[in-house]
Amino acid sequence: MIRFEIDQVSVELHIRTYFYSRIHELATLSANTLKDIIRTGDPSLNDSSLQPTTLIPSIIVDARIRVKKGGGDDEDGEEDSDEESSQYRKTRIADPYSLGTGIYRYQFKNPTDDMTYPIIIHFYEVDGVYDRNPVAMYTKLDVYAPNLEIFNSFYAHCYDSSRTPKDKLSIYISSKYGDWTHYSTIRKRKMEKVYMDESIKTRITQHIQTFIDTKDEYDEFGIPYKTTILLTGAPGNGKSSIVQAICGLFGYDLCIFTMSREHDNASIMSLYQSLPKKTMLLIEDIDDLFHERSVKNISQGISYGGFLNIMDGVLYRQGLITFITTNHPEEIDSAMLRMGRIDMIINIQNPKSKDIRVMIGDVLEKACSPKEREQIATQFIRELRGKEICMSSLMLFAFKYRKDILNHMSELLENWEFIRKTTGDNTKETMYQ
After folding, report:
1. Which of 63, 16, 65, 59 is nearest to 146 (CA)?
2. pTM score
3. According to the 3-state scheme, what is the secondary structure of the chain?
4. Domain 182-348: CATH class, spelled out
5. pLDDT band at 9 (very low <50, low <70, confident <90, very high)
6. Which one has a higher pLDDT value, 123 or 196?
């Protein structure tokens, strides 16, 4: 049996995701049994009290596929620097959605030869050290397989099994330690079900398509190959929805970054470095993180300059598509808004009559005839004139009462009046034109 130490975040994530849905297929082993298997090379052994050996063949699985024996030097004979190894340890964070620590045996049916081979998975905790400071307990993953060929086949199977189905979108959320946790898998949002000005959707999709198609031109002119889009406007009008739809349209998953008090420059840098492949990044409510150049009482370990340098300095992530949302663009420092850091600014206005009419028609498609839908939409829009209700509220209301919308309009308008008075929003701007 050969030990494969998993030091690449994406490899570990695929393996953990694979076993998360197959817990019932795993047999738990003791530490002594694992040592006995290492000594004898027989993975079928049960628990025993035999003494362990000290040296075993080992392969480190990371971006460079470094080969080690007995936990020694790299294949080139050089040891890792302290900084580099601490970066590796930094990425091994306990994931509440994965298996608990322990030793497990799994019978892997190799699709290439239709034979069954034993695979042993070892999750264990190590002390976390980053920048010479202890930060947390990390989980480390080792995989034991008969040989490299079987491991490669096993990992390929894990990768294929953990990939998001074509009609689904995987959501990852940031942890305070600098890695990503798979949060959920949702159905892709159809672009036509995002109700806003069609010209906005066209501008964004054309910009991203051009970005994807012109990598060589970025390289030719020495321009950093990344793009960032700022979405602003009143809350509830589709900023997050359009991001989900864009991810689905281009076949990307989504990583959502949320700042916490424990974040520092190093953990944010680690987040950027460990982004799963083919994911877009969403930073929501950037105005909640910074006011001008000051951090908003969220984290004392992150600096404004450090954040900007990670976004577009020498530390930027190649090929990254980032969306940033804000409800208060006036609170963002001009240094962040300059061309080069922000490539496109989209102001999503309050919905117009034509957007509401399309939404009502879709929601009522199965409830009534086209003529009735048109009549209901016309009356619905008439009732809303002069009112400021976001599109998400209108859509949820229309869906809730899709069999009898007009008879419940008083509820919608009373709720709007209550919120307006409670929040002190007495603006006279007309939302629906």
Report:
1. 59
2. 0.64
3. CEEEEECCHHHHHHHHHHHHCCHHHCEEECHHHHHHHHHHCCCCCCCCCCCCCCCCEEEEECCCCCEEECCCCCCCCCCCCHHHHHHHHHCCCCCCCCCCCEEEEEEEEECCCCEEEEEEEEEEEEEEEECCEEEEEEEEEEEEECCHHHHHHHHHHHHHHHCCCCCEEEEEEECCCCCEEEEEEEECCCHHHCCCCHHHHHHHHHHHHHHHHCHHHHHHHCCCCCEEEEEEECCCCCHHHHHHHHHHHHCCEEEEECCCCCCEHHHHHHHHHCCCCCEEEEECCHHHCEEECEECCCCCECCHHHHHHHHHCCCCCCCCEEEEEECCHHHECHHHHCCCCCCEEEEECCCCHHHHHHHHHHHCCCCCCHHHHHHHHHHHHHHHCCCCCCHHHHHHHHHHCCCCCHHHHHHHHHHHHHHHHHHCCCCCCCCCC
4. alpha beta
5. low
6. 196
Residue tagged 């530490």 (tokens)? 31
Q: Where are the domains of the chain?
A: 2-163, 182-348, 353-423
User: 364: buried, middle or exposed (CB in 10 Å: 19+, 13-18, 0-12)?
Assistant: buried
Token digits of residue 187: 């159905």
271-318 tens-digit pLDDT: 888 888 889 999 988 776 665 555 554 555 666 777 777 776 566 778
